[in-house]
Amino acid sequence: MTRVRLIVFDLDETLVHATEVPLAYPHAFQVGPYFVYVRPFAHELITFSSSHFDVAVWSSSSEAYVKAVTAELFGTTFPVTFSWAVSKCVQKVDAKSNGYVYIKDLRKVLKHGYAADEIIMIDDSPEKLQRQPARHLCLPAFTGDPADAELPRVIDRIKMMASLETQFRSSQTSP
Ligand SMILES: [Mg+2]
Known about the structure:
This protein is an alpha/beta fold. The protein contains five helices and ten strands; from the N terminus they run ββββαβαβββαββαα. The protein has a single domain, classed as HAD superfamily/HAD-like (Rossmann fold). It is 28% helix and 22% strand. Strand 7 (90-93) and strand 8 form a beta hairpin. It is globular, with a radius of gyration of 16 Å. The site of magnesium ion has 7 residues, from loops.
């Protein structure tokens, strides 16, 4: 039985879009040289996820950036189990682009006491999760469109992936 316990969020193009060139509408906050735009419904997704599961952040950006964006999005209201930056990613040469790809290896999360099927990783980059495609909830990249409406769908997909647990819980609490 699948029992989802932990949601791991990517940041860039999943929950936020950061750019040094400001867009045509007001940014949510600034981190260093970056104007950061929060994806529509990100607050709803974080609120939903935090009320049902542990939440964490794993980004291939710098430590300082991840710390600042995590503080803005999650604050003290939604404490994260961990917020990991590029140093927790595995750097690998990408044969297609001849550049580097930063892989998020789920085995690092397993050391924190979660089983592989208890984790959902939400990320716009399939290549970063190539080692565990089954636990990957992949979504289209957010590049600042204020009309973006992907995240309510993500909430529905999490509900589906965790539905067995929900049924288990509700059968326990019903009289
Ligand atoms: Mg991303």
